[in-house]
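REVIEWER CHECKLIST
Item 1: Sequence provided? yes
Item 2: Single chain? yes
Item 3: Sequence as submitted:
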Amino acid sequence: MGQNPRKKKGRPVHGVLLLDKPLHMSSNHALQRVKRLFAAQKAGHTGSLDPLATGMLPVCLGEATKISAFLLDANKTYRFKCQLGTRTATADAEGEVIETLPFEHVTLKDVETIIPRFIGDIEQIPPMYSALKKDGQRLYELARQGVEVERKPRPVTIYRLDILGFEQGELELEVECSKGTYVRTLAEDIGKALGTGAYVTLLHRLTVGPYSGDMISLDQLEQLSEHGFDRLDAELLPVDSGIIDWPEVRLDADSAFYVRQGQPVQVARAPTKGWVKIYDDQGFIGLGQIQDDGRVAPRRMMNF
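Item 4: Structure as written out by the authors:
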């Protein structure tokens, strides 16, 4: 008998890895390295980091890819440094210098005075060097051709913006922000408010949604891989760890059977609206949504 051409390559491994993405590597390249080390059938990340950024990149393996879209919408925390007095084409160290301005007059008191302007609901004009699309083309592709197009301001929320250090025109900050926030734009806007320019010299992501704390590097993963898959798999967080704050419903065997067949079920004391995590007596089995009639409808079921 011939081989089934549709048989998936790799292991059916499921979970979330908190990768500390290295400098000068694209998020996709980092993802592919993780997928290869785990020999995973499926892998996806939860929103890319620039090659010049480091830090938390949650990598979803197997059925965890079904929750990755919800992490795209999550709040994030970054630590970053910006150099005053210089503007670059990309607002980071990768771009060519387009303007130099005096910055020696700026004091810590000046910084403390303007920071509150950037906390709360603000608007940002997305940078040309971004992955947003205009008429089907990514903005950074247009920017590389020397084309600049009008971008509409977008609302974002800055929950917290702390000054960590200020010395010789280098400002270090930590920001907790909503999805869609461009730290490079934030740095440029802070420089402008201080009457000078600014660009990001260091960007490190600390948290994504519910995920914070220990991350693992690619080098550490490479070393663990020498001890077999069990040692690697021990680094994975549960599939439902990314939606830990969602309400949950627990089903008896009969209800779980019908939900797995794609049928909505009535659940006592279920929430009255929104998304829910679904569990049976074995554990987490999928994501559901409350219908208008109050029943729990399956939306993304796990296939463990």
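Item 5: Key structural point noted by reviewer: The CA atoms of residues 276 and 288 lie 5 Å apart.
Item 6: Recommendation: ____
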